[in-house]
Amino acid sequence: MEDPQIHGAIDRMVDEEHQLWQREAAGEATDADRLRLEELRVSLDQCWDLLRQRRARRDAGQNPEGAELRSPQVVERYEQ
Predict the structure, then answer these.
(1) Cα dihedral sign for 57, 62, 65, 68?
(2) Which of 16, 29, 43, 66 is the most exposed place for a label (fewest CB within 10 A)?
(3) Which of 41, 61, 76, 56 is nearest to 3 (CA)?
(4) Based on the number of CB atoms within 10 Å of its own CB, is 64 exposed (0-12), middle (13-18) or buried (19 or more)?
(5) Which of 5, 75, 4, 78 is nearest to 44 (CA)?
(6) C-alpha–C-alpha distance, residues 10 and 17, integer Å
(7) How far apart are CA 62 and CA 3, in angstroms?
């Protein structure tokens, strides 16, 4: 997956996330909406991690295509 595709996926997920947060703020969110928010949070973390990997590989003179989507268990254990 190329960087523009990853950015596009991030944009779509952020749009969906904003819609779900609007429902939450209006008191209209369902349990399914809250579950989806958590799924989006993890997926966004994975996509941002993938972009960071690709940038690091590029900066190191390596092929960015060698970057891999890491599992939620790995990505969610990072310290911010």
Answers:
(1) negative
(2) 66
(3) 56
(4) middle
(5) 75
(6) 10
(7) 15
Residue 1 in tokens: 């997956």
C-alpha separations of 51 from 3, 21, 43, 56 in Å? 7, 25, 12, 9
- Contact between 38 and 55 under an 8 Å Cβ cutoff? The reply is no
* Tokens read off for 43: 């997926």
Q: What is the pTM of this model?
A: 0.89
In a structure prediction context, what are the per-residue pLDDT tens digits for the chain, which is 80 residues long?
Answer: 899 999 999 999 999 999 999 999 999 999 999 999 999 999 999 999 999 999 999 999 999 999 999 999 999 887 65
Of residues 11, 4, 12, the one with CA closest to residue 54: 4
